[in-house]
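Cast an eye over my tokenised protein here and flag anything odd:

===
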Amino acid sequence: MDSNKIKDIKVVMHDHLEGVGKQIGNEFYIPISLLEQGYEAEKEWREKDQQLHLHVTKARFSEISSYQSHGNYLHFDKNSVENWNVRYDYSGIPKTVYSFGEYYNPSTIAQYGLQHYSLYLKNNDAQSKNKFLNVAKWFLDKQDVRGGWAYSFDLPYFPSRNLEVKRPWYSSIGLGMAMSVLARASYLTKDEQYNSCALRATKLFRTPAPQGVLAKFENKFSFYEECPTNPPSYILNGFMYSLIGLYDVYKATGNRLCQRLYNQGIVTLKRMLPLYDLGNRTAYDLTHYTTDGGYPNVAKWGYHITHIHLLSALYSIENDQKMKTILLRWKDYLKGIRAK
């Protein structure tokens, strides 16, 4: 065939997607729109270099090579809770706006505080410092008699697989992030009441869900539940956030119980990490294992990157070879490199 001859061809992908491509000599060209649809590819045109790049996702992670318990929290200076679906109460605390109403979400409030703590470290901005300390005081003032900050709405987490969690309930992600706020507030102000408040929250890590956040994987390994469903859902990001919170408070106080809860969680994490590895992305939870769901709840790319950030921080603390191996695999998935 003449190498200069060009003709239109019909392209059929996966036996159900169709488009019009080109044949030039012995080479075939497929429209980008079909690749985007058939393989969930994302295109990036770089005008300066006149290059077209294709990715499984354009989302990228930021390296966390050395996590510091009183330092920038997981690159949260790049967060912008102000642009989330929130409204602020009279004291400047964000309330999350749901379809069923406005509620205080301890995780969102803590993320707002940790964002501004990280911005304060970066820019030495007094306004960010004040916003962070305002959040820390909220946690100080709103801690309940059980040591936590309960969610005051019913939780329909994955309703096709789990029964609704009834209010009030506690979340390991809310507890862990609150503890990270309080440990940093104590470091910043030299006021030990923040650390004391954080230590009171450890009781809920020893209390079985749904009254607390403790679940037992294989009736042996301690897992701290983001959503206290029955059976457990084993949500990975919430668990790792809670481990970082426990670590932050242990480093701030030297408390042995806090250290033990953290260490027990690390043992669990290393046992369970491979279960979240799907060969080309991660699973958000293990409901496909604990319920009759039957298939993995595949993490969106944003959550996959969150898994990488959290595992990077924990690996920088633990320097564990198994964690490193899994971390490298998960980074490769962002490049379209599948596990072998």
